[in-house]
């Protein structure tokens, strides 16, 4: 049994017990990203070996290699309506993959930097890269629609909030910037952390934005109060790389460099 997550609920830290059910092996280098696969039992992984694999929680065992890229993969994003997977190839661009036929259907040169996050809103694909750029891609035309650069520091994470018509973006200049999802203009800039902002997540009710940073702190921002700081917790001893909510939306878990 593994006690693995930090959860904030009513100002208390709870501990959740988790038991290992499966061990999936096959990557030859670090696994950098996981992405749900459109069905509850399927998920994808991408790693430093450039492998993109699909795994089945029901059958376990070996995964299926659905793509291999020349460089490492930090970001994957599944498009359920199109039943296609977008993979970010560091120092190059994005690839559109039909995972059922294990076939690449399109690619697009974006950057010579790392691709840290990929999200989508309606017909737009949003990629955040290590050169500080947000690139908006029109999915129908598979062409760059807009490129935004507000700083030279890396874009590390993107959280889209369709209900509010905006997105939060975390940068390595320690800031969170709020953009509208119409023209992708900056609405607000928050001096959020003492180091890079690695992960962002809106709460399921959209009332709070959660941020995790290289400074090992989790902060919550009150969206309805103009993203004012609501709470701060020293949650780990090293960088916080990811925040994910439980299916119930009542709790969240964090992953850190402190293991």
Which labels suit this protein?
single chain; disordered N terminus; four-stranded antiparallel β-sheet; 0% helix; mainly beta; 259 residues
Tell me about this structure:
- The protein has strands at 2-3, 7-9, 12-14, 17-18, 31-36, 42-47, 51-56, 64-68, 73-79, 84-89, 93-98, 103-109, 115-121, 124-129, 133-138, 143-149, 155-161, 166-171, 175-180, 186-191, 197-202, 208-213, 217-222, 228-234, 240-245, 252-256.
- The protein is mostly beta strands and 259 residues long.
- The strands form eight sheets. It has a four-stranded antiparallel β-sheet, with no helix packed on it. Strands 9-10-11-12 form a four-stranded antiparallel β-sheet, with no helix packed on it. A four-stranded antiparallel β-sheet has the order 13-14-15-16, with no helix packed on it.
Shape descriptor: globular
Structural class: mainly beta
Strand order within the widest sheet? 5-6-7-8
Query: Mind summarizing the main beta sheet?
Result: 4 strands, antiparallel
Name the beta content range. over 45%
State the end-to-end distance. 15 Å
Give start-end ranges of low-pLDDT stretches: 1-11
Number of strands: 26
Mean pLDDT: 92
Fraction of residues in helices? Answer: under 10%
Global Rg: 18 Å
SS summary, helix count: 0
N-to-C SSE string, H for helix and E for strand:
EEEEEEEEEEEEEEEEEEEEEEEEEE
